[in-house]
Structures are given as structure tokens and as C-alpha cells.
Amino acid sequence: MTLFDVIDRTWPAQAFHPCGPFTLREGAGGGKRVSAASCTRPVTGSEIEDAESAMATLGQPPLFQVQGDQPGLDDQLAARGYEVVDPVVILLGDIDAVAGDGPPRVRAFPVWPILAIQSEIWADGGIGPARRAVMERARAPKTTILGRIDDSPAGCAFAALHDGVAMTHAVHVLPRFRRKGCAENMMRGAAVWARAQGAKHFAALTLSENLPARTLYSSLGMQPVGHYHYRLKSPDRDPRD
Q1: How far is 27 from 87, CA to CA, in rounded Å?
Q2: CATH label of the domain that carries residue 192
Q3: Are residues 98 and 159 located together in one domain of the fold?
Q4: Closest CA to 35 of 10, 62, 57
Q5: Does residue 240 lie within any of the structural domains?
Q6: Exposure pattern of 138-177 as b/e (b: 16+ CB <10 Å)?
Q7: How many other C-beta atoms can be found within 10 angstroms of the C-beta atom of residue 235?
Q8: Rounded Cα gap, residues 12 and 26, in angstroms
Q9: For residue 208, what are the contacts with CB-CB under 8 A and spacing of at least 6?
Q10: Helix axes 71-79, 45-57, angle to 10 degrees
């Protein structure tokens, strides 16, 4: 099991298709994370071409996820005109350290199924029906976390569990409630929930350049343990991926 397996299980594509050394993800509009092709061994130019053709058959633009250090794949894609898009860092921490004493009372709590107010909060962050459909189709133990500030719904996140690792996705706090501890409360609330499901570790993803998020995760005892980026010919940047 790798953390990339955890990503696929907790934030799954609509379908996975083998194509030579590549795994193709059919995203159904759910963003780059569920639409990119990835591989775990060196590839040839013809295998990249086969993956490009297969993605076109799925109705998706060619998009590749370079996981960790894969210089061969990275160099070949660069030579074909693919640009680096959205470098992401994977962070991991001990579940007890992240949970701490839990969030303050009624500041963050697990909710499933998704509430209408959560859909509204996510819509504010551009997390629409296609991304919420990713949450619905996850087969792992899962929940959402609703964060509250001053007795008002302020933010939400999605969390799911695979092989002892809980991972959060789609973390969003409404602008007027930021810098009030909502994100921290939601992470602690998610960790408390995950620990009750048997999780030993807590993971999160964020753009490498997102310093506020990285500072928050560091304060929770989480450390960078991996990274990936996308390669796309016509970059369509989306900070939620």
C-alpha cells in the first residue's frame, strides 16, 4: 500500500482503465486528481501515445500525473510539450497528534449524508456536483466534517479511510470565517472520527505553494512525505486539485 493507493481509494475516479503501464482515470468532470493517467515503471514514447489515444476515447484531454520522482516520464512529457501544473505535497501525521484533545464543543463534527448547507459552502469554493459525486462513490469508511464559527456553518471537509490511513479532501472555509481556527477544528474533528474507525495515521494534500495550509498541517504534527504534479499541454489551473 502507498499513499497514492490511499488517494485512489478515498477520492476515487468513476472508473480505472489499464493501458499498458498506465492506469487511466475516468474523471466524469471531477477534476484532475480523478482524471490523470499515472504509471509506476519506465515508459516508452509509443506507450505515452497509446495513453493519449485512450484518454481521447474517454473524451478527456491528455493529462498525466507524475508521482514522486519519475525523471524518465517527466522528461518525455516535457519533450512532447507538456507543462508542469499544480505541484502537490502529501503530508502525513500520527492520528493522536492530529486529533489532540479534539475540536472545541460544537465547532466541528462528522456529518453523513451531505447536508444542503455543505453543498452551498463547497459551491463557494468551486467544489460542485461532479466533485461531490466523488465523495458519494467512495467505498471506504467516510464522512464529511462541518465546521462552525459563532454558531454559523463556516466550512466543511471530506475524510475517508483506507488501510489505517485517513485522508482529507475538499477542505473549504468561507472567506468571512477564515483565520478563526475553523480549518484546524475540522482537521482535529476528522482525526477524532478517523481514530474511532481504527486509523493510525492522518494525511492531507495541498498545493506546494499553499503556505497557510502547509503551516496549519505542520502545527498539527504533519510532515511532507511525498509529492506529485501534473503534466498538461494546455494548462487549466485549478487550486482545488
Answers
A1: 19
A2: 3.40.630.30
A3: yes
A4: 62
A5: no
A6: bebbbbbbbbbbeeebbbbbbbbbbeebbbbbbbbbbeeb
A7: 13
A8: 9
A9: 87, 88, 89, 227
A10: 70
| Dihedral sign computed on CA atoms, order 117, 119, 120, 122 | positive
Residue range 121-154, pLDDT digits in tens: 999 999 999 999 999 999 999 999 999 999 999 9
Q: Does the reported pTM lie above 0.85?
A: yes
The 10s digit of each residue's pLDDT in 178-208 is 999 999 999 999 999 999 999 999 999 999 9
CB 218 within 8 A of CB 132: no
CA-CA distance, 205 to 190, in Å (whole number)?
14
pLDDT tier at 14 (50, 70, 90 boundaries)?
Answer: very high
In this structure, which amino acid lies at residue 214? R
Whether residue 99 contacts residue 195, with contact meaning beta carbons closer than 8 Å, is answered with yes
Structural domain boundaries enclosing 75: 3-88+228-232
Q: How do the residues of the chain divide into helix, strand and coil, expressed in percent and rounded to 5? A: 35, 35, 35
Residues 67 and 170 in one domain: no
Mean pLDDT (the chain, rounded): 96
Nearest to 43 by CA among 17, 7, 62, 19: 19
Taken as a whole, the chain contains a residue count of 241
Residue 21 maps to a domain: yes
